Amino acid sequence: MNWKIKVPSSTSNLGAGFDSIGLALNLYLELDVTISEEWEFVPTSACLEGIPSGKENLVYQIVEQVAEKYGKKEELKPCYVEMKSEIPLARGLGSSATAIIAGIELADLLLNLDLTKDEKLQIATDIEGHPDNVAPSLLGGCIIGHYDGEVQYTKIPVKGVTFVAVIPDFELKTKDARAVLPTQFSYQESVQASSVANVSVAAICQGKWYLLGEMMQKDHFHQPFRKSLIPHYDELTTYLRSQAYGVFLSGAGPTMIAIVDDKNVFSALKQWKSDYPSYQWLSLQVENAGVFVDRIKSEV
């Protein structure tokens, strides 16, 4: 028996939805898993060059955490795992979240846990600390979630828009991006920040992308502080907004994402690539299905 596990990437925050709003995108981490005599992780794509090949690998560490949670670590069977990814590491596109979801799915398969989606999400959020990346990678679509030890969430349909990722050639670690954030807000600042987030959620629910774009520019939670870590942030935002509904910092960055009407994305992207050739440009769609697992029986 072997398995294929395919996990979509994600973008999070969407402006003011800090640590609570995320969206699954059609870039994927794929695992081809076979029972073996020892744990081995083999990268088959450039994005994963240099990843740990043994038990230091994040996927294994998640498998082990899940096994320990259910008291079944001794039942784990070693695996040979080929890993392929289209997701740039440390760019704000949920690469670590995909590894967490992949690890939970692999543990579920190896240990016959028969976990529900909600159980998997609870485990993933306990590990990650917030649901905005792991929930979309697990469930697909746009997820608005809350976590205070227990996860509550809702899934919102998204259609008619393309998410154009603008990826620079440098990494930004989440811990560094979090280090620049304030430790507290005043009462009045909190009211302003939450009101922007509230309108953002309403705009997503009603598909009012222009309104969402306006709210993204009014974010109080993270973009005003993190943009100092992103060269040309203000320049690119102003430039992209001339043809996009809105522009936001994907996760902790440094990737920026422009929300573009499906009918206009081809012409806009052609111009953007010409004007800013040093960036990697990806035209991405919402992945509504979430993680996919295929059980493959070995031929006798």
TrEMBL record:
Official protein name in the record: Homoserine kinase
Catalytic activity: L-homoserine + ATP = O-phospho-L-homoserine + ADP + H(+)
NCBIfam families noted in UniProt: thrB (TIGR00191)
GO molecular function, one term: homoserine kinase activity
Pathway annotation: Amino-acid biosynthesis; L-threonine biosynthesis; L-threonine from L-aspartate: step 4/5
Domain GHMP kinase C-terminal per the UniProt entry, residue ranges: 201-276
EC number(s) stated in the UniProt entry for this protein: 2.7.1.39
PROSITE patterns assigned to the protein according to its UniProt record, in alphabetical order: GHMP_KINASES_ATP (PS00627)
Lineage summary: Bacteria, Bacillati, Bacillota, Bacilli, Bacillales
Gene name of the encoded protein: thrB
InterPro entries cross-referenced by the UniProt entry: GHMP_kinase_C_dom (IPR013750), GHMP_kinase_C_sf (IPR036554), GHMP_kinase_N_dom (IPR006204), GHMP_knse_ATP-bd_CS (IPR006203), Homoserine_kinase (IPR000870), Ribosomal_Su5_D2-typ_SF (IPR020568), Ribsml_uS5_D2-typ_fold_subgr (IPR014721)
Known function: Catalyzes the ATP-dependent phosphorylation of L-homoserine to L-homoserine phosphate.
Keywords associated with the record: Amino-acid biosynthesis, ATP-binding, Cytoplasm, Kinase, Nucleotide-binding, Threonine biosynthesis, Transferase
Compartments where found: Cytoplasm
Species whose genome carries this gene: Gracilibacillus marinus
Binding sites annotated in the UniProt record for ATP: P88, L89, A90, R91, G92, L93, G94, S95, S96, A97, T98
Signal peptide: none
GHMP kinase N-terminal domain span: 57-141
